Amino acid sequence: MRAVPGILALSLAFVLVQAGPADATPAGPGGRILVLDDSAGGHGVVSVRARGGDVRSLGLHLPAYAYPDYSPDGRRVTYADSWSVYTVKADGTDRQWVLDGPYVPAHPRWSPDGTEVGFEAVDIWAGAVAAPAGRQVYTVTGRGSLTFDWSPDGRQIAVVQVWEVGDPWDPINARDIWIARSDGSMIARRLTDRAETWDPYRIAWSPNGRTLAVEALGDLWSIDVRTGAMTNLTATADVIESSPIWSPDGRLLAFGRQAAGATTPQVWLRPAQSRGDTGRGVGITGIPTSWHRGF
């Protein structure tokens, strides 16, 4: 492991709406969405059709940080539990250990080529899925990295990083988004610069590589990866939107929508770039964690 100069000591530890037949009423979005409901009496992890219905339980009752994710081919699902990262078949069977984190791992994400899994554990880490026992994970970013996602080509990551700004004798902990090489070799650039007024958390990179969908301040935001230009997509005072996930074709976002007074979010879909369309519910509670085009 090598140290990298700069504000983010970036080092990476890895183990690593489709239209239907032409008719008067176009079909809804295709594919399946993984949904996690960790509330008391919740359904745990299920797979649901993106257009709603056909709910299939994976038989997994996991904490929120487990954040299950479909492999690129859709055949397996990775998730975090206790000190380890595991994979199971898409139906929840055949659990296999992948790696142990240096700290409790959270929010694992498959690399786009399916060879590694990245995860959050104080830093961002990753490691090979298929490797000899005792394999080592490696760090992608330095301490203070909260959440991340891979670029579609796997060469970069977008990461939310906590850093100190302002008076060095009385600094403010700010959160911003950085774009970095996924091999941990260098810091590419800071994408946002909002200081204490900006509070990004969950983040998702669009399939075409041009846009980040970000959960921040109770709303969903769109950020241009090239310019850093930001758009508040929802701007809802009495509704909290969280955990954005892109549809495989990049046209829609799935997200958790929790109205004032509600105890559990609902899974909703909305156009990825429209500010006027509030979207619609899929008919299931919880937060979406992954969307695959198949089956």
UniProtKB/TrEMBL annotation:
The UniProt entry's sequence similarity note says: Belongs to the TolB family.
Q: In which organism is this protein found?
A: Paractinoplanes deccanensis
Gene3D superfamilies for the chain: TolB, C-terminal domain
**What is the name of this protein?**
TolB protein
Name the domain of life. Answer: Bacteria
Q: Where is the signal peptide?
A: 1-24
Q: Which UniProt keywords apply?
A: Signal
Is Signal given among the entry's keywords?
yes
InterPro entries from the UniProt entry: 6-blade_b-propeller_TolB-like, WD40
